[in-house]
Design goal:
mainly alpha; Hydantoin permease; 21 helices; 76% helix; 0% strand; globular; Transporter; transmembrane; transmembrane helix; transport
Protein backbone atom coordinates (compact mmCIF):
# COMPACT_ATOMS: atom_id res chain seq x y z
CA UNK A 1 0.00 0.00 0.00
CA UNK A 2 1.31 3.45 -0.84
CA UNK A 3 2.60 5.73 1.87
CA UNK A 4 0.50 8.89 2.13
CA UNK A 5 0.90 12.15 3.97
CA UNK A 6 -1.85 11.09 6.37
CA UNK A 7 0.16 8.01 7.33
CA UNK A 8 3.33 9.96 8.01
CA UNK A 9 4.97 10.11 11.38
CA UNK A 10 4.82 13.41 13.25
CA UNK A 11 6.65 15.23 16.01
CA UNK A 12 4.75 15.56 19.26
CA UNK A 13 5.51 19.29 19.28
CA UNK A 14 7.86 22.13 18.37
CA UNK A 15 10.54 21.25 20.91
CA UNK A 16 10.63 17.65 19.73
CA UNK A 17 11.47 19.00 16.26
CA UNK A 18 14.06 21.46 17.62
CA UNK A 19 15.77 18.72 19.65
CA UNK A 20 15.75 16.41 16.64
CA UNK A 21 17.19 19.10 14.37
CA UNK A 22 19.81 19.99 16.97
CA UNK A 23 20.62 16.32 17.52
CA UNK A 24 21.18 15.91 13.79
CA UNK A 25 23.35 19.04 13.59
CA UNK A 26 25.46 18.18 16.65
CA UNK A 27 27.78 15.43 15.49
CA UNK A 28 31.39 14.40 15.18
CA UNK A 29 32.29 17.55 13.25
CA UNK A 30 31.46 19.69 16.29
CA UNK A 31 33.77 17.58 18.46
CA UNK A 32 36.84 17.07 16.34
CA UNK A 33 36.83 19.73 13.63
CA UNK A 34 35.50 22.93 15.20
CA UNK A 35 38.15 23.06 18.02
CA UNK A 36 40.93 22.42 15.50
CA UNK A 37 39.71 25.18 13.15
CA UNK A 38 39.20 27.64 16.00
CA UNK A 39 42.70 26.95 17.32
CA UNK A 40 44.17 27.31 13.84
CA UNK A 41 42.34 30.50 12.85
CA UNK A 42 42.63 32.89 15.74
CA UNK A 43 40.15 31.55 18.28
CA UNK A 44 37.54 34.23 18.83
CA UNK A 45 37.94 35.55 15.27
CA UNK A 46 36.90 32.17 13.90
CA UNK A 47 34.06 31.82 16.42
CA UNK A 48 32.63 35.25 15.55
CA UNK A 49 32.82 34.47 11.83
CA UNK A 50 31.13 31.12 12.41
CA UNK A 51 28.38 32.78 14.47
CA UNK A 52 27.61 35.28 11.69
CA UNK A 53 27.50 32.51 9.08
CA UNK A 54 25.24 30.26 11.17
CA UNK A 55 22.60 32.96 11.59
CA UNK A 56 22.73 34.20 7.99
CA UNK A 57 23.70 31.57 5.45
CA UNK A 58 23.07 28.56 7.70
CA UNK A 59 19.70 29.70 9.00
CA UNK A 60 18.62 30.57 5.44
CA UNK A 61 19.20 27.04 4.14
CA UNK A 62 17.80 25.42 7.30
CA UNK A 63 14.59 27.42 6.93
CA UNK A 64 14.41 26.70 3.20
CA UNK A 65 14.71 22.92 3.63
CA UNK A 66 12.39 22.73 6.64
CA UNK A 67 9.71 24.83 4.92
CA UNK A 68 10.00 22.74 1.74
CA UNK A 69 9.51 19.54 3.73
CA UNK A 70 6.56 20.89 5.70
CA UNK A 71 4.84 22.39 2.66
CA UNK A 72 4.97 19.13 0.69
CA UNK A 73 4.71 16.70 3.61
CA UNK A 74 7.33 14.55 1.88
CA UNK A 75 11.02 13.68 2.02
CA UNK A 76 13.53 14.95 -0.55
CA UNK A 77 12.53 13.12 -3.76
CA UNK A 78 8.80 13.66 -3.27
CA UNK A 79 9.27 17.26 -2.15
CA UNK A 80 11.00 18.32 -5.36
CA UNK A 81 8.88 16.05 -7.57
CA UNK A 82 5.71 17.70 -6.24
CA UNK A 83 6.59 20.80 -8.26
CA UNK A 84 7.14 18.77 -11.43
CA UNK A 85 8.67 15.42 -12.37
CA UNK A 86 11.59 17.15 -14.08
CA UNK A 87 12.78 18.45 -10.69
CA UNK A 88 12.85 15.02 -9.03
CA UNK A 89 16.55 14.63 -9.91
CA UNK A 90 17.46 17.25 -7.27
CA UNK A 91 15.69 15.12 -4.67
CA UNK A 92 17.44 12.00 -5.97
CA UNK A 93 20.85 13.65 -5.55
CA UNK A 94 19.94 14.90 -2.07
CA UNK A 95 18.63 11.45 -1.13
CA UNK A 96 21.82 9.72 -2.27
CA UNK A 97 23.85 11.70 0.29
CA UNK A 98 22.52 10.06 3.51
CA UNK A 99 22.82 6.62 1.89
CA UNK A 100 26.50 7.34 1.20
CA UNK A 101 27.25 8.94 4.58
CA UNK A 102 25.41 6.57 6.96
CA UNK A 103 27.63 3.48 6.40
CA UNK A 104 30.96 5.24 6.93
CA UNK A 105 29.57 7.39 9.74
CA UNK A 106 28.62 4.14 11.48
CA UNK A 107 32.20 2.91 11.13
CA UNK A 108 33.53 6.04 12.86
CA UNK A 109 30.70 5.66 15.41
CA UNK A 110 32.07 2.19 16.07
CA UNK A 111 35.51 3.68 16.75
CA UNK A 112 33.99 6.08 19.28
CA UNK A 113 32.02 3.22 20.91
CA UNK A 114 35.21 1.20 21.22
CA UNK A 115 37.12 4.07 22.85
CA UNK A 116 34.25 4.76 25.27
CA UNK A 117 34.45 1.15 26.46
CA UNK A 118 38.26 1.03 26.31
CA UNK A 119 38.65 3.76 28.94
CA UNK A 120 36.97 1.40 31.40
CA UNK A 121 38.31 -1.92 30.06
CA UNK A 122 41.87 -1.03 29.01
CA UNK A 123 42.64 2.16 30.93
CA UNK A 124 43.90 5.52 29.62
CA UNK A 125 47.55 4.44 29.33
CA UNK A 126 46.73 1.84 26.67
CA UNK A 127 44.99 4.45 24.52
CA UNK A 128 47.70 7.11 24.67
CA UNK A 129 50.45 5.20 22.86
CA UNK A 130 50.78 7.60 19.94
CA UNK A 131 48.36 5.86 17.64
CA UNK A 132 49.32 2.20 17.93
CA UNK A 133 46.12 1.25 19.77
CA UNK A 134 43.99 3.08 17.21
CA UNK A 135 45.76 1.63 14.18
CA UNK A 136 45.67 -1.96 15.47
CA UNK A 137 41.96 -1.60 16.23
CA UNK A 138 40.75 -0.14 12.92
CA UNK A 139 42.85 -2.60 10.89
CA UNK A 140 41.60 -5.61 12.84
CA UNK A 141 39.52 -7.97 10.63
CA UNK A 142 37.23 -8.63 13.59
CA UNK A 143 37.15 -5.87 16.20
CA UNK A 144 36.40 -2.92 13.93
CA UNK A 145 33.44 -4.80 12.41
CA UNK A 146 32.17 -5.82 15.86
CA UNK A 147 32.09 -2.25 17.19
CA UNK A 148 30.59 -0.94 13.96
CA UNK A 149 27.83 -3.53 14.37
CA UNK A 150 27.22 -2.52 18.01
CA UNK A 151 26.87 1.13 16.99
CA UNK A 152 24.54 0.22 14.11
CA UNK A 153 22.34 -1.95 16.33
CA UNK A 154 21.75 0.90 18.79
CA UNK A 155 20.83 3.26 15.93
CA UNK A 156 18.54 0.69 14.28
CA UNK A 157 16.74 -0.06 17.55
CA UNK A 158 15.98 3.62 18.14
CA UNK A 159 14.78 4.25 14.57
CA UNK A 160 12.81 0.99 14.64
CA UNK A 161 10.78 2.32 17.57
CA UNK A 162 9.47 5.15 15.39
CA UNK A 163 9.63 8.94 15.37
CA UNK A 164 7.76 9.69 18.58
CA UNK A 165 8.44 6.44 20.43
CA UNK A 166 12.10 6.11 19.49
CA UNK A 167 13.80 9.18 18.03
CA UNK A 168 12.07 11.75 20.24
CA UNK A 169 12.72 9.80 23.44
CA UNK A 170 16.35 9.11 22.54
CA UNK A 171 16.96 12.80 21.79
CA UNK A 172 15.15 13.84 24.95
CA UNK A 173 17.68 11.81 26.93
CA UNK A 174 20.89 12.13 24.90
CA UNK A 175 20.82 15.84 24.04
CA UNK A 176 20.46 17.12 27.65
CA UNK A 177 22.98 14.49 28.79
CA UNK A 178 25.40 15.65 26.09
CA UNK A 179 25.05 19.30 27.16
CA UNK A 180 25.49 18.46 30.86
CA UNK A 181 28.60 16.36 30.20
CA UNK A 182 30.08 19.02 27.91
CA UNK A 183 29.53 21.75 30.52
CA UNK A 184 30.90 19.51 33.29
CA UNK A 185 34.07 18.59 31.39
CA UNK A 186 34.61 22.20 30.30
CA UNK A 187 34.28 23.44 33.90
CA UNK A 188 36.74 20.82 35.14
CA UNK A 189 39.18 21.71 32.36
CA UNK A 190 38.99 25.39 33.28
CA UNK A 191 39.99 24.63 36.89
CA UNK A 192 43.30 23.10 35.80
CA UNK A 193 46.44 25.19 36.43
CA UNK A 194 47.30 27.18 33.31
CA UNK A 195 43.95 26.50 31.65
CA UNK A 196 42.97 30.18 31.55
CA UNK A 197 45.84 30.84 29.14
CA UNK A 198 44.26 28.22 26.89
CA UNK A 199 40.87 29.89 27.26
CA UNK A 200 42.35 33.24 26.24
CA UNK A 201 44.03 31.59 23.26
CA UNK A 202 40.69 30.03 22.28
CA UNK A 203 38.19 32.84 22.92
CA UNK A 204 39.99 36.15 22.43
CA UNK A 205 39.76 37.37 18.82
CA UNK A 206 42.98 37.86 16.92
CA UNK A 207 42.02 40.11 13.97
CA UNK A 208 45.35 39.45 12.27
CA UNK A 209 44.28 35.83 11.76
CA UNK A 210 41.28 36.80 9.60
CA UNK A 211 41.86 35.56 6.07
CA UNK A 212 40.08 33.98 3.08
CA UNK A 213 41.18 30.61 4.46
CA UNK A 214 39.46 31.34 7.79
CA UNK A 215 36.26 32.34 5.99
CA UNK A 216 36.25 29.19 3.84
CA UNK A 217 37.02 27.02 6.87
CA UNK A 218 34.16 28.55 8.87
CA UNK A 219 31.84 28.36 5.86
CA UNK A 220 32.56 24.68 5.27
CA UNK A 221 32.31 23.77 8.95
CA UNK A 222 28.96 25.54 9.27
CA UNK A 223 27.60 23.97 6.07
CA UNK A 224 28.51 20.40 7.01
CA UNK A 225 27.69 20.74 10.70
CA UNK A 226 24.08 21.88 10.21
CA UNK A 227 23.02 18.75 8.25
CA UNK A 228 22.27 20.78 5.14
CA UNK A 229 21.77 19.40 1.61
CA UNK A 230 21.31 15.78 2.64
CA UNK A 231 17.54 15.56 2.91
CA UNK A 232 17.46 15.45 6.71
CA UNK A 233 15.83 18.81 7.36
CA UNK A 234 13.37 18.29 4.50
CA UNK A 235 12.35 14.98 6.10
CA UNK A 236 12.18 16.43 9.62
CA UNK A 237 10.20 19.42 8.33
CA UNK A 238 7.67 17.03 6.77
CA UNK A 239 6.91 15.67 10.25
CA UNK A 240 6.21 19.15 11.69
CA UNK A 241 2.74 20.52 12.38
CA UNK A 242 1.87 23.65 10.38
CA UNK A 243 0.94 25.61 13.49
CA UNK A 244 4.57 25.59 14.70
CA UNK A 245 6.77 28.63 13.97
CA UNK A 246 9.62 27.76 11.66
CA UNK A 247 11.77 30.87 12.11
CA UNK A 248 12.32 30.54 15.86
CA UNK A 249 12.71 26.76 15.59
CA UNK A 250 15.49 27.12 13.02
CA UNK A 251 17.19 29.79 15.14
CA UNK A 252 17.15 27.43 18.13
CA UNK A 253 18.75 24.64 16.08
CA UNK A 254 21.51 27.06 15.03
CA UNK A 255 22.05 28.09 18.66
CA UNK A 256 22.37 24.45 19.77
CA UNK A 257 24.95 23.77 17.06
CA UNK A 258 26.97 26.88 17.88
CA UNK A 259 26.76 26.29 21.63
CA UNK A 260 27.97 22.68 21.49
CA UNK A 261 30.77 23.63 19.07
CA UNK A 262 32.04 26.36 21.41
CA UNK A 263 31.76 23.99 24.40
CA UNK A 264 33.76 21.36 22.50
CA UNK A 265 36.52 23.90 22.05
CA UNK A 266 36.38 24.82 25.74
CA UNK A 267 36.83 21.16 26.61
CA UNK A 268 39.68 20.48 24.20
CA UNK A 269 41.78 23.60 23.59
CA UNK A 270 42.56 24.58 27.23
CA UNK A 271 43.25 20.92 28.11
CA UNK A 272 45.68 20.61 25.20
CA UNK A 273 47.21 23.93 26.23
CA UNK A 274 47.86 22.60 29.76
CA UNK A 275 49.13 19.21 28.65
CA UNK A 276 51.30 20.30 25.75
CA UNK A 277 52.15 23.90 26.52
CA UNK A 278 50.27 25.53 23.66
CA UNK A 279 47.04 25.53 21.74
CA UNK A 280 49.02 24.77 18.59
CA UNK A 281 48.81 21.12 19.67
CA UNK A 282 45.17 21.20 18.65
CA UNK A 283 45.85 23.21 15.49
CA UNK A 284 48.43 20.62 14.43
CA UNK A 285 45.83 18.07 13.43
CA UNK A 286 42.14 17.50 12.97
CA UNK A 287 39.68 14.67 12.48
CA UNK A 288 40.49 11.17 13.73
CA UNK A 289 44.06 11.99 14.76
CA UNK A 290 42.85 14.72 17.14
CA UNK A 291 40.10 12.56 18.58
CA UNK A 292 41.82 9.17 18.84
CA UNK A 293 45.52 10.00 19.18
CA UNK A 294 46.07 13.54 20.52
CA UNK A 295 43.26 13.69 23.10
CA UNK A 296 44.04 10.32 24.76
CA UNK A 297 47.55 11.73 25.38
CA UNK A 298 45.97 14.84 26.93
CA UNK A 299 43.74 12.74 29.23
CA UNK A 300 46.64 10.45 30.19
CA UNK A 301 48.67 13.49 31.25
CA UNK A 302 46.01 14.26 33.87
CA UNK A 303 46.92 11.03 35.66
CA UNK A 304 45.10 8.60 37.95
CA UNK A 305 41.37 8.18 38.15
CA UNK A 306 40.82 11.61 36.58
CA UNK A 307 42.25 10.37 33.27
CA UNK A 308 39.93 7.37 33.26
CA UNK A 309 36.78 9.24 34.29
CA UNK A 310 37.34 12.27 32.07
CA UNK A 311 38.33 10.15 29.07
CA UNK A 312 35.29 7.92 29.51
CA UNK A 313 32.88 10.84 29.91
CA UNK A 314 34.34 12.68 26.94
CA UNK A 315 33.99 9.71 24.59
CA UNK A 316 30.53 8.96 25.97
CA UNK A 317 29.61 12.55 25.07
CA UNK A 318 31.05 12.11 21.58
CA UNK A 319 29.21 8.78 21.27
CA UNK A 320 25.90 10.49 22.04
CA UNK A 321 26.67 13.13 19.39
CA UNK A 322 27.49 10.41 16.85
CA UNK A 323 24.36 8.41 17.70
CA UNK A 324 21.97 11.36 17.39
CA UNK A 325 23.39 12.26 13.96
CA UNK A 326 23.35 8.64 12.76
CA UNK A 327 19.73 8.28 13.90
CA UNK A 328 18.72 11.29 11.79
CA UNK A 329 20.59 9.86 8.78
CA UNK A 330 18.90 6.45 9.04
CA UNK A 331 15.45 8.00 9.60
CA UNK A 332 15.95 10.13 6.48
CA UNK A 333 16.87 7.03 4.44
CA UNK A 334 13.74 5.23 5.70
CA UNK A 335 11.51 8.19 4.84
CA UNK A 336 13.04 8.48 1.36
CA UNK A 337 12.25 4.84 0.52
CA UNK A 338 8.76 5.10 2.00
CA UNK A 339 7.92 8.12 -0.14
CA UNK A 340 9.83 7.06 -3.24
CA UNK A 341 8.68 3.43 -3.45
CA UNK A 342 5.40 3.66 -1.55
CA UNK A 343 6.59 0.99 0.89
CA UNK A 344 5.42 0.58 4.48
CA UNK A 345 7.77 1.92 7.16
CA UNK A 346 8.72 -1.62 8.21
CA UNK A 347 9.65 -2.68 4.69
CA UNK A 348 11.55 0.53 3.99
CA UNK A 349 13.43 0.15 7.28
CA UNK A 350 14.48 -3.42 6.40
CA UNK A 351 15.89 -2.22 3.06
CA UNK A 352 17.83 0.59 4.76
CA UNK A 353 19.33 -1.85 7.29
CA UNK A 354 20.48 -4.16 4.49
CA UNK A 355 22.03 -1.33 2.44
CA UNK A 356 23.79 0.30 5.41
CA UNK A 357 25.21 -2.98 6.75
CA UNK A 358 26.49 -4.21 3.37
CA UNK A 359 27.99 -0.81 2.47
CA UNK A 360 29.47 -0.50 5.97
CA UNK A 361 31.21 -3.86 5.72
CA UNK A 362 32.60 -2.96 2.28
CA UNK A 363 33.93 0.42 3.40
CA UNK A 364 35.40 -1.06 6.58
CA UNK A 365 37.31 -3.62 4.49
CA UNK A 366 39.28 -0.64 3.22
CA UNK A 367 41.26 -0.74 6.47
CA UNK A 368 42.23 -4.41 6.22
CA UNK A 369 41.42 -6.79 3.33
CA UNK A 370 41.01 -3.95 0.81
CA UNK A 371 43.65 -1.61 2.27
CA UNK A 372 45.52 -1.73 -1.06
CA UNK A 373 42.65 0.31 -2.56
CA UNK A 374 43.73 3.96 -2.19
CA UNK A 375 41.31 5.85 -4.45
CA UNK A 376 42.41 9.40 -3.58
CA UNK A 377 46.12 8.78 -3.57
CA UNK A 378 48.74 7.35 -1.25
CA UNK A 379 47.43 6.76 2.26
CA UNK A 380 43.75 7.31 1.43
CA UNK A 381 40.99 4.78 2.12
CA UNK A 382 37.61 3.79 0.72
CA UNK A 383 36.07 5.77 3.60
CA UNK A 384 37.94 8.88 2.44
CA UNK A 385 36.48 8.45 -1.04
CA UNK A 386 32.91 8.13 0.25
CA UNK A 387 33.45 11.17 2.49
CA UNK A 388 34.87 13.22 -0.39
CA UNK A 389 32.06 12.32 -2.80
CA UNK A 390 29.28 13.04 -0.30
CA UNK A 391 30.65 16.04 1.60
CA UNK A 392 32.89 17.88 -0.85
CA UNK A 393 31.04 17.19 -4.11
CA UNK A 394 27.42 16.14 -3.76
CA UNK A 395 26.29 18.28 -0.82
CA UNK A 396 27.42 21.62 -2.30
CA UNK A 397 25.90 20.66 -5.67
CA UNK A 398 22.59 19.75 -4.00
CA UNK A 399 22.60 23.02 -2.03
CA UNK A 400 23.30 25.02 -5.19
CA UNK A 401 20.51 23.28 -7.13
CA UNK A 402 18.12 23.78 -4.21
CA UNK A 403 18.87 27.52 -4.03
CA UNK A 404 18.36 27.90 -7.79
CA UNK A 405 15.16 25.82 -7.60
CA UNK A 406 13.62 27.90 -4.81
CA UNK A 407 15.13 31.26 -5.78
CA UNK A 408 14.47 31.21 -9.50
CA UNK A 409 11.99 28.44 -10.38
CA UNK A 410 9.24 28.09 -7.77
CA UNK A 411 10.18 31.53 -6.34
CA UNK A 412 10.90 32.35 -2.67
CA UNK A 413 7.33 33.53 -2.06
CA UNK A 414 6.17 29.89 -2.31
CA UNK A 415 8.06 29.03 0.87
CA UNK A 416 7.54 32.43 2.49
CA UNK A 417 3.81 31.66 2.41
CA UNK A 418 4.52 28.37 4.19
CA UNK A 419 6.63 30.08 6.86
CA UNK A 420 3.93 32.72 7.42
CA UNK A 421 1.24 30.11 8.08
CA UNK A 422 2.30 30.19 11.74
CA UNK A 423 3.16 33.90 12.01
CA UNK A 424 4.85 36.87 10.34
CA UNK A 425 8.23 36.45 8.63
CA UNK A 426 9.94 39.77 9.34
CA UNK A 427 13.17 38.97 7.52
CA UNK A 428 11.62 37.62 4.33
CA UNK A 429 13.26 40.32 2.20
CA UNK A 430 16.74 39.51 3.46
CA UNK A 431 16.00 35.78 3.24
CA UNK A 432 14.95 36.16 -0.40
CA UNK A 433 18.17 38.00 -1.29
CA UNK A 434 20.20 35.33 0.51
CA UNK A 435 18.46 32.46 -1.32
CA UNK A 436 18.62 34.04 -4.78
CA UNK A 437 22.03 35.71 -4.78
CA UNK A 438 24.32 35.24 -1.77
CA UNK A 439 23.82 31.57 -0.83
CA UNK A 440 24.52 30.23 -4.36
CA UNK A 441 27.82 32.15 -4.47
CA UNK A 442 28.86 30.88 -1.03
CA UNK A 443 27.98 27.29 -1.97
CA UNK A 444 30.09 27.55 -5.13
CA UNK A 445 32.99 28.80 -2.99
CA UNK A 446 32.61 25.75 -0.73
CA UNK A 447 32.50 23.39 -3.72
CA UNK A 448 35.55 24.88 -5.46
CA UNK A 449 37.57 25.24 -2.24
CA UNK A 450 36.99 21.74 -0.88
CA UNK A 451 37.40 19.92 -4.20
CA UNK A 452 40.48 22.04 -4.88
CA UNK A 453 41.89 21.25 -1.44
CA UNK A 454 41.50 17.51 -2.06
CA UNK A 455 43.69 17.76 -5.15
CA UNK A 456 46.22 20.13 -3.58
CA UNK A 457 45.15 23.26 -5.46
CA UNK A 458 44.18 25.11 -2.26
CA UNK A 459 45.24 24.72 1.34
CA UNK A 460 43.25 25.94 4.35
Amino acid sequence: MSSTIAERSAWSGRWAFILAGAASAVGLGNMWRFPYLAAKYGGGTFILTYLVLVFTFGATLLLLETALGRKTGLSAIGAFKKFGKKFAFIGVLASAVPFIITPYYSIIGGWVTKYTAAYLLNGPAALSDGGGFFTSFITSPFESFLWMAIFMIVVFVVVGMGVEGGIEKANLFMMPALIIMAVGIAIYTLTMPGALDGVAYYLLPDPSKFSPELLIGALGQMFYSLSLAMGIMITYGSYLDRKEKLTSSVANIGMFDLGVSVLAGLMIVPAAFVAMGSGEAVAAGSGPSLMFITLPKVFESMGGAVATVLGFLFFLLVLFAALTSAISLVETCVSIIMDGAGFSRKRAFAIVIAVVVVAGVFINLGYNALSFVQPLGEGSSILDLFDFISNSVMMPIVALLTCVFVGWIIKPQTLIDEVEVAGPFKLKGAWTVMVKYIAPVLVVIILVAYVGAQFGIFKF
